[in-house]
Amino acid sequence: MNRKQLCVLLALVIVLGALGWMLYQRNQTSWQSAGQSIGKKLLGDLPINEVAALVIRGSTNELDLVKKDNRWRVAQRHDYPANYSDISAFLIKAADLKATQTEEIGPSQLGRFKLLPPGPATNTGILVEFKDATGKTLKSLLLGKQHMRKGAPSTPMGLGEGEEGYPDGRYVMVGTGAKTVALLNDPLGNMDVKPDQWLSKDFFKVEKIRAIAATFPAATNSWKVTRDTETGDWKLADAKPDEKLDSAKTSNFSYALSSPTFNDVLPLDTQPAPAGWDKPTTITLDTFDHFTYSLKIGAKTNDNVPVELTVTADLPKERTPGKDEKKEDKDKLDKEFKDKQKALEDKLAQEKPLEKWIYLVSSWTVDPLLKDRSQILVEKKAESKKDGKAGTDDENKDQATSEVK
User: Fold this and answer.
1) What's the pLDDT score for residue 387?
2) CB 190 within 8 A of CB 279
3) Any residues with CB less than 8 A from the CB of 303 and at least 6 apart, and which?
4) Which residues contact 31 (CB under 8 A, 6 or more apart)?
5) What is the pLDDT of residues 213-227, one digit of tens each?
């Protein structure tokens, strides 16, 4: 290689290096062109105490979380109470959102960040509108695609260099007509447009069960069990002489519906009615605390069964004093009684409003109680009979051998 060729080669290296540096600097400048907004609150002074509605729009549906009667509710679920903790946490987080990076972009680049306005097109974002009690939009935020953390070589998750790991941020835009996209260090993964994801999952709880009655469409399958104390054995009511309750099959009755959950809700006047609603199974549970829970249960669809709840309580107004009760003991026991009754009254007041809806409950929640009468009894062993008498296994075997001969 002569001197002239070497000079040309060096000049080419210098030019390429300069171009690479300029491209790098332009990229850095682009992501920090709105640098004055980095570290500042994206939504400014969002007055979260004035927010009375959240409208969340996705590509094909809309979710309205609205404050009514001093409680957040899910409009698409017939004003069923919403999960206040989730809404409160999001509002507090939204008011403090800050960008870690920003970039000026044009309309043609919105799809790359999934920041196109909600609609039938692809690469659209999720628009969150913060509204006050009059319906005025205070602020709006468009959520784009999540930023994925790159995996390091030989990570415990098995991710290689350059492979995407888990979400650690999200691209967002204030409003829908802005020219700046911001990158947050929070993926906002709980922002879902599905109404059932925002429902308050506070539900009823059955405690200290005294009796359980299952009434099936076929009367012969129905049954009722009772017990005398909270730790006593279950007994089958109106048991026939040849019926014996199988304690292994009823051992979980004591804790039935002690912590039930539901997946979704329907209005009581749902049309068409849930499957099997014309011939439901009814489960009634009485407790030692004088509560009665009645569950109307329809047919199973996929993994859910529809359940309608009725709850009542016949709480005693006064305590019956014990024989020869001392004055100091009476005062203490009276106070304990009043405290307990107040707690039970609060429990009834909390559970009574649940009667307004039909709940879609996972079938495994009620399956232990949906057993036919024969399924809770000790199985009868097959018996061979001759001359109206049942023989032992050895006698039956000898008899069969004799007949063959």
Assistant:
1) 46
2) no
3) 362, 363
4) 101, 102, 103
5) 999 999 999 999 999
For residue range 380-404, what is the model confidence (pLDDT) as tens digits? 874 444 445 544 455 454 444 444 4
Copy the structure tokens of residue 37.
Answer: 């907004």
- pLDDT value at position 342? 96
What is the SS3 assignment for 139-206?
EEEEEEEEEEEECCCCCCCCCCCCCEEEEEEEEEEECCCCCEEEEECCCCCCCCCCHHHHECCCCCCC
- Among the listed residues 32, 22, 153, 9, the one whose alpha carbon sits nearest the alpha carbon of residue 99: 32
Ranges under pLDDT 70 in the chain? 1-37, 151-164, 382-405
pLDDT at position 9 is 64
CA gap 147, 115 in Å, rounded: 13
pLDDT at position 320 is 82
353 by Cβ neighbours in 10 Å (0-12 / 13-18 / 19+) ranks as exposed
Task: Give CA separation, 259 vs 43, 150, 161, 247, 254, in Å.
Answer: 40, 40, 45, 22, 12
* CB-CB contact of 304 with 363 (8 Å): yes
**Ramachandran angles phi, psi of 288, nearest 5°:** -70, -15
Whole-model pTM: value is 0.79
Among 244, 243, 261, 245, smallest CA distance to 253 is for 245
Beta bridge partners of 171: 183
Report residue 135 as tokens: 């319906």
* CA-closest candidate to residue 378, choices 202, 249, 221, 262: 249
C-alpha–C-alpha distance, residues 43 and 174, integer Å? 7
